[in-house]
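Dear Dr. L.,

I hope this message finds you well. Following up on our conversation about the binding site, I have prepared a predicted three-dimensional model of the protein together with guanosine-5'-triphosphate. For your records, I am including the exact sequence and ligand specification that went into the calculation, followed by the structure tokens. Please feel free to forward this to your student if that is useful.
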Amino acid sequence: MASGQLSREEALACSGYRHACHAMLYCDTNTQLFGRIPIRHIILMQMRFDGLLGFPGGFVNTQEETLEAGLSRELLEELGVALPLSVEDHVDARFAPVPSSSSSPLITHFYMRKMDEEQIREVERAAASTATDHGQEVLGMVRVPLYSTKSGGGLAFFLSHSFIGNARSQLLDSLLRLNLVAPKDLHKALTQSLKMHT
Ligand code: GTP
Ligand code: MN
Ligand code: MN
Ligand code: MN
Ligand code: MN
Ligand code: MN
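The resulting structure of the complex is given below.
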């Protein structure tokens, strides 16, 4: 595990920090792109108001709510569905990169929840219709392409976009941790995505 990681309890014991909780909702799928490229898994991310990609979730006021209650509140605002995540879904906490001088330092918590494909589709429908943040703080949900096309499109191009905070490494860690992409395929996509920046 990368340095800077904290347990949930260690993180909560840090005084003077703000906390933010974000979640990766995902499922398995048998569907295929163009009827021949297995999609294998659906992972939900979002296009934020600021044009960056990130996971659903947000700031939690730990004086007023538990991390998980705050995360569930944020998911309701951003996705339009009640999705009570629990302590068991907590996978990571770490200090965020040094913030702008005006704001207090931040600890980011990450949660993962595997769902059924139909539940994921319901989240997508709600996020695009009833979610109060739709079209405001959240411009839309996106699925992460985990495959590579013959011309090198797919995961590599996705990773070449800009991400909020450490959302990109949260995604990469999760892909490896859950074995959603083979390490050698991830390595190839990463190498390609770095070339795309230049
Ligand atoms: P407001 O309602 O405008 O306060 O937004 P929010 O509560 O939804 O907060 P947001 O989702 O923007 O997350 C709070 C902070 O956490 C951001 O300012 C980023 O620094 C960081 N952040 C946002 N999204 C992610 C993410 O996907 N991963 C990580 N690690 N950090 C994130
Ligand atoms: Mn078409
Ligand atoms: Mn929010
Ligand atoms: Mn948010
Ligand atoms: Mn918020
Ligand atoms: Mn808000």
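In brief: The first helix runs from residue 8 to 13.

With kind regards,
A. P.
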